[in-house]
Every structure is written in structure tokens, then in C-alpha cells.
Amino acid sequence: MKSLLIFLKNYKKECVLAPLFKMLEASFELIVPLVVSAIIDVGIVNRDRGYIVQMCLVMVVLGLIGLICSVTAQYFAAKAAAGFGTKVRHQLFAHIQSFSFSEIDKAGTATLITRMTSDINQVQSGVNMVLRLFLRSPFIVFGAMVMAFTIDLKAALIFVVTIPLLSLVVFGVMAVSIPLYRKVQERLDRVLGITRENLTGARVIRAFHKEEEEKNRFEEGLESLTSMQTYVGKISAFLNPVTYVIINGATIVLLHTGAVQVNIGNLTQGEVVALVNYMSQILVELIKLANLIITITKAYACGNRVATILEMRSSMPVSRTAAGNDNAKEQKMNRETEHKSIPVVQFAHVSLTYQGSGAESLTDIDFSVQEGETVGIIGGTGSGKTSLVHLIPRFYDATKGEVLICGKNVKDYPLEELRQRVGIVMQKAVLFSGTIRQNLCWGKADATEEELYQALETAQAKEVVEGKEGKLEAKVEQGGKNFSGGQRQRLTIARALVRKPQILILDDSASALDYATDARLRKAIREMEGSPTVFIVSQRTSSIQHADKIIVLDDGEIAGIGTHDDLLKRCQVYQEIYQSQYKKEA
Question: CA spacing 20 to 30 A to 402: which of 266, 315, 333, 347?
Fold first, then answer.
């Protein structure tokens, strides 16, 4: 939590002025019981109406000044808290963007969303409350005790006993509740994760008629969260009645002591009223302090959770070196000279083990690909096809061996330059809310109309755009929900083609296309200007049988490399895949 306080450095003035004005308000509030005492002892006893009116006007002025101070303090506290929350969100979002797939897998999407929203809101609320009440409430409590000493020593001793007793209760509750609030947030993460899974997988749940099971799973998570919140709430609720009992008991003792002192002439009636008012002020402020401590407890737990994410370091930090700022012409010249002799992509005895996984997902992958070649990657479900191609743009780092692009280890490239060389179309076609033009320009921000239509034509998506009202300016809903699966896939392929990448990876990205469209797409990619090196991951042998080289994976290992005809003769795994899709010849 302490590491987050750096985000308040631009609000030093507000952090000083907010508690300062609250202290001024508290000072005027401490004067009020003395004014009331004077009204009773002087105005009422002497029946001096003028004096009573005068003192009442003084109280009104004190109230107005206190109100102005309170509003001013609230303005500065809100400004500092809102600015703090904004800066933390900006920093957290930017930090999450630097994460590799490994860190996102480790933290979990549900947790990251909770910490970006709910947790930061709690911390922001805590900052606001601290600036307003953290100094005011203790100042009133100890100020009331000091004022009591100025009135009567014996009566003030009651304050000396009451305040530590109340502090013991308040801080005891805080010590117990802090770790429990952390558990509440963890269970909230779990509920959010279940909710997210249900929303994203709604179609699958309905297809398998699993609605009741998912409802039960959600209810279990919600019941666990509710029980923990109820338990913490009971401990927090214990605070108010105990403080009331202690304060009211102290008030009874104070009235008894005051009555005895008035009877013997050591105190006036007005002074007793002033002491009771000070005790009431202590009660009110300690209740405020108790609520403040509950808020601070939540904010502290949430702040630690946010700080945990900020402290996570990406295994692939974005480095910007001079090499990453080469202009396009120099890169093109390098490609033309280097690729004649050096493989564009080379896997040198590469293995991959995911975090938290005991077994290797890829084992001893060794092959090279020359410029302009088309490589097909095929294998059974879970054989490691996607894992293999994700190593090229460095979504994950190889745990053994090296992945080389143009003879240079991918780890030695600045990420920006590396990913400018690689165009990848993921298994799941994702479009972002906006227009078709905006989605395509993710591939190249300054792409011309001609370049966009050229990419659309290659991706067999031109008819999709021309069929929409507004064409390139046609609206795209979040996730591309207003497009069919095949249309989304073709648009995502076009987005990757706009930048004319040196290496193009199609990760099972034509699964929703019919065979004729798939064939036209592959033919158009082969005829592209610049002859990119293409990796096609597919479950269909028809999609890769014309590739220059086919890599067959089986349980993370290479079962065979060669052309379609070669593999049909000597690779049993490939034969089984092919024969499962085509009838054996008689």
C-alpha cells in the first residue's frame, strides 16, 4: 500500500489543505460547548436576554465558519482522491499492457479486472476519508479531553480512562478485520471469474444444457462470499454498540461526578453541560473514527492487492533501442540481403514449459524456414501447434533452445520491431468496437484506402465490407458480434495483411471458412507482393497439403517434416489425420 502513495505527489497542496481546514472546523467545534456554558452560567442565571442573543449569534458565526472550512476541506480531499485514483488506474492499465501471456495467465483476467475497478475504488474512497477525518477525529477526541482539564481536573480523569478504553476496542477490531477483508476480496475475485466465464461461454453452456450446474456453481461462490462478508460485518458491527456502552457509561459517571461538584460549589451547571457536550463530541468522533478505520482497513487490503500487480515484473519488458527505430527502407534492405542465406525463422532445439506446469508442452523442436516458404503445422488437439507459433512473436519465451529470426534470437529484438515483422491471426477472431476502418488500421495506422482494399481483397473480405452500409465506416460492435464467424475471421486476416508482414501466422484462422473460400485465400496469400513467409496452423490437411513444408506435431514433439506426399508415405500420425478426413482408396 505504501508504494501507491507516490501517486499523491502531485497533490501535496491538497493533502495539506484538506486536513488543515478540517482541523480549523474542529477548533471552532470545540469552542461551542464553552459558548453554551457561558449562555447558561451568565445569560440564563442573570436573565440577560441581550447576552443570550449575542452568544447565540456567536454560535451561528462559528457554525458558518465551520461549514465553509468543511466544504473547502471536502473539495481538496475529493480532488486529491480522484486524481490519485485516476493516476493509479492509468499506471495499472499501462503496467498490465506490458505483461506477457505468462503474467496474464498467472494473475488471471478476473483478478486484473477486480483490481482495476473495485479495489482502486476502495483505495480512492480510503484516501478521501483519511484526508478528511484521520486528523480531525483524534484532534476532537484529545482536544475535548484538554478542554475538560481546563474546566475540572476530577471530571477530566473520566476522559483519561474512557479514551484509551475506546481506542483499545477500535484498534482491536481493526487488527482482526484487516486480514478478513483481504479474504473477502479474494472470494469476490472468484465470483467475478465465474460470472465472466458464464458470460463469455453462454452459448456453450446452453448448447450442453448446463444452466443449472452453472447456477449452482455461482451460488456456491456467492454463498462463500456472503458468509465471509457477514462474518466481517458482524465484527465491524460489534464496534458501534461497544463504543456506545462505554461512552454512555462514562456520561453517567460524568453526570454523577458533576452533580456532586455542583452541589459543593466547585462546578457550575454550565460547566457540567459543557463536559457532557465534550463527551458527546468524543462519542460522535469515535463512531466516525470507527467507520473510518473500517474504510481504511478495506482500502489497505485493496491497496496491497493493487500493489501486488504493480510489483509483478514482465518477463518480456518492452525495450526501445536504436534497432527498434530503424526506418522501413533499411529493414527492407536488410531482409533482401540477409534472407538469401540465413533462414527467416529457425527453431534450434526449442522446448517450452508453461508456468505451473510440470511437463513440457513442446520438446526439442528443431527446424528452419527460408524466405517466402509456406509452412503447414498440423497435429491432434493439444499437440502444441499454437504454442509453437506463439514463440515466434515472443508471446512466450522458450525454456530451452533458441528461436531465431533472420539469424537473431527473438529475445535480442526490441518487442516493437519484432512484432512489426510478424503478422498473426489468432484462433479466436476478435474485433474491437468502432468501425471497420479503425479495426483494419490496427495493422497499419497510416494505411491508405488502396492498401486497406488490397488487404481486404487478399483476405476474401472485400464483399463483406461492400455489403455493409457505410463500407469501411460501417459500425463494428464489441467483439464483432454484428458479423458472422467467417466474416470476423476474414476481417482479422485482412487486419494482419495491411502491414505487409515479413512473417504471417494464420493460427487456425480459416476454420469458419468453406473449402472454396479457404483455397482462394491461400492462393491470394501466395501471390502477395513481397512473398511473406507463411505459417498455417490447421486441423484440415486440405488447408496445408500444398505447403512447401509440413510440420506434424504429436504430444509436443515433431512426428514428421516434409511435403504432403512424403508424409503420406512415411509419417503414421499424418496418415491417420489424413485418413480420418478422407475415405481410404479402395
Answer: 333
Residue 317 lies in a domain: no
**pLDDT score, position 325:** 44
Interior angle at CA 392, CA 356 and CA 529, nearest 5: 155
Residues in the chain: 586
* Helix intervals (H) in 118-152: 120-133, 136-151
Domain with 253 in it = 2-311
User: Are 251 and 300 in the same domain?
Assistant: yes
Q: Buried (b) or exposed (e) across 177-198, using 16+ Cβ within 10 A?
A: bbebbbbbbebbbbbbbbeebb
Instruction: Find out whether 113 and 194 touch, Cβ atoms under 8 Å.
Output: no
**Does the residue 316 lie in any domain?**
no
Question: What does the pLDDT look like over 205-264, one tens digit per residue?
Answer: 888 888 899 999 999 999 999 999 899 888 878 777 887 788 888 888 888 888 888 888
Residues 144 and 249 in one domain: yes
The last residue of one of the domains, among 257, 281, 311, is: 311
176 and 292 co-located in one domain: yes
- The pLDDT score that the predictor gives to residue 341 is 65
> What count of other Cβ atoms lies within 10 Å of the Cβ of residue 222?
16
Which residue matches cell numbers 470476423?
488
* Domain end position, chosen among 282, 311, 340: 311
CB 356 within 8 A of CB 330: no
Give kind and range of the element (H or E) at residue 174.
helix 153-200
Assign 472 a pLDDT band (cuts: 50, 70, 90).
confident
Looking at residue 127, which CATH number applies to its domain?
Answer: 1.20.1560.10
